[in-house]
TrEMBL record:
PANTHER family: FHF COMPLEX SUBUNIT HOOK-INTERACTING PROTEIN 2B, RAI16 PROTEIN-RELATED
InterPro entries on file: FHIP
Top-level taxon of the source organism: Eukaryota
Name by which UniProt lists this protein: Uncharacterized protein
Lineage: Eukaryota, Metazoa, Chordata, Craniata, Vertebrata
Amino acid sequence: LLVTVSSCLSLSVSQREPTVDLLDSFIDHWKSITNYYIETTDDSRPVRETDIPWRLKQMLDILVYEDKQQDTGPCLEYLLQHKLLETLSTLGKAQVPSL
């Protein structure tokens, strides 16, 4: 009986929903990225030395989590509706020197 209770408890803990609203978190990460580009005056600082890679990873983790829920989630809809990939591409191109 103790093993069964322990198994059920462990299963319920691993299947808990995140405590933070995913869309709010996703938008917060995106706004932090865009604010960096709006506010920064140090163009010589490589992006890898900022928190942008970490924020992008957090956004990716949220999208993967939503995908595992088998539904198109609000974060994916936000990404598509607000053209985040297009914006990231534009920002990336601006950081690469012309050849």
